[in-house]
Structure formats: C-alpha cells, structure tokens
Amino acid sequence: MNERRIGSVPRPLRILLPTLLAVQLTFSLLQPRPQARADQLSPPPPLPLARVMTAGEPIAFAQMLTLYLQAFDNQPGISIPFAALDYDTVSAWLERILDLDPRAQYPLMMASQLYAEVPDENKRRQMFDLVYRKFLEDPDRRWPWLAHVAIMAKHRLKDLPLALHYAQAISTYATGTHVPHWARQMRIFLYEDMGEFETAKVLLGGLLDSGVVTDPHEIHFLIEQLNRLSTADKSSTPSGN
Amino acid sequence: MLGKALIIARFTLLEAVRTRLLWVVLILFGALYFGSLFIQHISVTESARMQTGFLAATIRFAAVIVLSLHVASSMVREFNDKGIDLLLSLDLPRAVYYVGKFLGFAGIGIAIAVVASLALLGATSVGGLVWWAISLAFELVLIAALALFCVMTFAQIMPAISFVLAFYLLARSMSAVRLLSESPLLSQSDMTNRVIAHAVDALAWCLPNLDQFTATAWLVDSGTPNALAIVALQTCIYAGLLIAAGLFDLYRKNL
C-alpha cells in the first residue's frame, strides 16, 4: 500500500473537504434549472463550416446537432410551444442536419410529426413544404414522412389539392420495390374524396391491369373499391331523362 | 507561510517562461486568428460575427488544452526529477507547496486569458471583451485546479489529461444533457427514463456549471453578462473543493 492512513491528513482538511463538497451541492441546488428558450435558437452554421466542424464524422455531428435542436423543444415540465420557435431557423437546422447525414430519418420525423403539429397553419405549411422538398431528393427512403404529411394536409388543413399533390409525388417518384402499394394508391382515394370518381376509376383500373398488385386479398379489396367507385360515379352522374 | 507559497508560485511562473509557453500560446492563437479570417472569407453573411464567434470559441478551448497540458507536464517532470521529494524534505508543509503550485498555475491561466483577449481585440467591442476575458480567467483558474488535482492523483500525463478533457466537456454540456434527459418527448412513466433523469441531475450537482462561463454571446451580441458574479462564486467554491481534494490526496501519499 503506497498510501498513508487517513489520520495523517490534517484535521482541518478532513473537515474542509466534505464542507466544500456540501457547499458545491448546495450552490448547484440553488441554481435555477436549465431552461430552453425559443429565442436562444440561433441559425445553424453554414454548410462549409459545418463540414469542417464534423472533423470527418458528419453522421455523429449531425446526430449531435439533432439533439441540440431537440433541446430547444422542451424545458423541464413544460414543453415550449413549437409555435414559439422561429420556423425559418428550425427549417435551416433540419436542412443542415440532412445535408450532413442524408440517410437520417430523424429530422423529417421531427418536421412531420412534431413541428407540423402546431396550431399555426403557415408554420404547418412551412414544415409540409420542407418535407416535400426533402422527399424529392430521396423519394424511396423519405416517402413515409410525405405520406404522413399528405394525410395531415387532408385532415388538419382540409386542403385536398395539396394532399393530392403530395400523394401524386409519392406515386410518381417513390418507385422502389419496398414502397408499399397503399402509399402509391393514396392518390386514388384522394381523387375519390374530391369527387373525381372517373379519374380514380381509371387509376385504379390501371393499377389492377398493371399486375403490380399480386396479393389476392389486396386485389379483391381494390376490385371492391373499383365497383364502389363505379356505383358512386353512376349515382353522381345527372340523369339524361 | 504565504511567502513560501508565493516563492513556489513565482518559480512555477518562471518555469512557464523558460519552457516557452508564451510562444506556444502566441503561435496557437495566431493560427486560430488566421483560421477565423478564413471563416470570415467563406461566410456569406454576418461575416464579422462568424469570425468573432469562431475565434472566441476555439481560443477558449485551446487555452484550456494548453494550460492543462502545461500543468500536467510540469508536475510529471517534477515527479520524475524528484523535485517534489526535495522540496518536501525541507521545512515546508505539503499544503504550502500545493497552494504555491496552484497559485503559479492560476497565474499562468490568467496570463493566457489576457493574451486571448488581445487576440480578440480587433474583432469585437471592448466592453463585452473585458467581461469575456475576466470569465475566461476564472475558467482557467478552475482548470488549473482541476489539472493539478488530476496529475497529483494519477501522476501520469495521459490519464490526467483524459480526465480533465472528459470533465471539461461534460461540465460544459451538462445543461443540454439535463434538458434532453427530461424531455417531454420521452415517456415520464418509464422507470428507466426517470432514473436516468435523476442520475443526470445528481451528476450535474457535482460539476461546475461551465456552460455559464465565457459565453461567446457576450462578444457577438450586446448584453450584460449577469452571470459573472455566479462565475466568480462558482470558481471559488469549485477551485477550493479541488484544492482540498488534491491536498487530501497529497497528504496520503508516501513520498
């Protein structure tokens, strides 16, 4: 043992050390808890500087930026209303994170599921637009967020043309084999919601004829939908008599 | 006793001068200044703000690294040369030796803070810079106490510096970690989340709140650093705690 007994430490020091530790703990406890403030969110670093700051680890750095941004979303006990944040800055942060880590899903999840939940239509549309623009850069990987946004546009904004625009984008650009049929068929049901039964019928018929759908249950469901659309179309067409 | 401590402090400062620490600091800060010019050059907007922000943040971190490396290498050299054995064989209490060393390293830290503020002189207003420099001096005094404690405990450069850096980074990011651990996005009914949040709180109480020190915002945004009194108080308490812990360790050592 290369150490002397504790008794060899002068008595004042043996008292001073725990006393100072107690002072430190008291001091820390008396400090206000850290709070995130919406106005403290400054713009992200420019992309060239951000790339330098990654030090060759863009993914890890992007993840740190994501957590940093997330720290501004909440404070102990009470969530900062997302609407209090400057959405231009939030968009810039999300875009910067995606620039550094294009395969990350977290930023678009935040955009579509968190920031787009605010009761402010302009801010919602800003997030929808961000998700749409970013979807176009990598449709096969980012379609789930645009699908969510399309549903939000329909139900929250009651903006069927916008929802249809997003649904059409999924159908047109998300052509990977793992993209489910329901996502690509979404536009058909939106046409139906808009009363455009003929267009919906054509699209649905084309889908069935294409042979893309192979699951018997799904084919049965789509045929049922086609029949229902035909009935709806006839009943909505004015009688010639 | 104070006289003896001041003599040791004076020789610690002299050692820094003779090992050309000032030149190392000047070259490092000069390189960072040129780096900040590059940042200013590539910035599309707010170029002066970007330059100041980059320079202040990097100089602050560089000052911490340089000071802790100097403290560790100086003390390890003293261990290897048996200088500490020689000094303590004289009529010199261990506490006086330790406090003298701390005062010397703290003086070096203050000198580095002055040089750092000179490097920023042309890039920002003098008002904010004075507060920033005072806060950096407090921060470096705290780092001097931390590095001295670590090297006294570990007696080797690598583990001592690793501990200092880990401690420093953790202390600076603790507020953000606390915010994240208490996120309402996480399920508060989950026992694990609550335990982690309490553990993070407990850890934060034991660390100095370095995120309140030497804020770049004081330089780039006009505003009074109300936190300076807190910074001074925190430095006194935590440096005192580290000195007491280091002394406790030194008194238990068999030399």
Structure notes:
- The complex is a heterodimer of chains A (241) and B (255).
- With 241 residues, chain A is mostly helical.
- Helices cover 66% and strands 0% of the residues of chain A.
- The longest helix of chain A has 21 residues, at 216-236.
- Chain A is elongated, with a radius of gyration of 28 Å.
- Mean pLDDT of chain A is 82; it is low at 75-79.
- Chain B has helices at 2-18, 21-42, 47-80, 83-89, 94-119, 126-154, 157-181, 191-205, 217-220, 228-252.
- In chain B, helix 3 packs antiparallel against helix 5.
- Chain B is globular.
How would you describe the shape of chain B? globular
Distance between the termini of chain A: 109 Å
Number of strand segments of chain B: 0
Q: How many DSSP E strands of chain A?
A: 0
Q: Would you summarize the structure shown here?
A:
Chain A is an all-alpha fold and 241 residues long.
Which key features would you list for this structure?
heterodimer, A: 241 residues, mainly alpha, elongated, B: 255 residues, 10 helices
List the helices and strands and how they pair.
The complex is a heterodimer of chains A (241) and B (255).
Chain A: H1 11-30, H2 47-53, H3 58-71, H4 87-100, H5 106-114, H6 121-137, H7 139-155, H8 160-173, H9 181-193, H10 197-210, H11 216-236
Chain B: H1 2-18, H2 21-42, H3 47-80, H4 83-89, H5 94-119, H6 126-154, H7 157-181, H8 191-205, H9 217-220, H10 228-252
Helix pairs in contact in B: 1-5, 2-3, 2-5, 3-5, 3-6, 3-7, 5-6, 5-10, 6-7, 6-10, 7-8
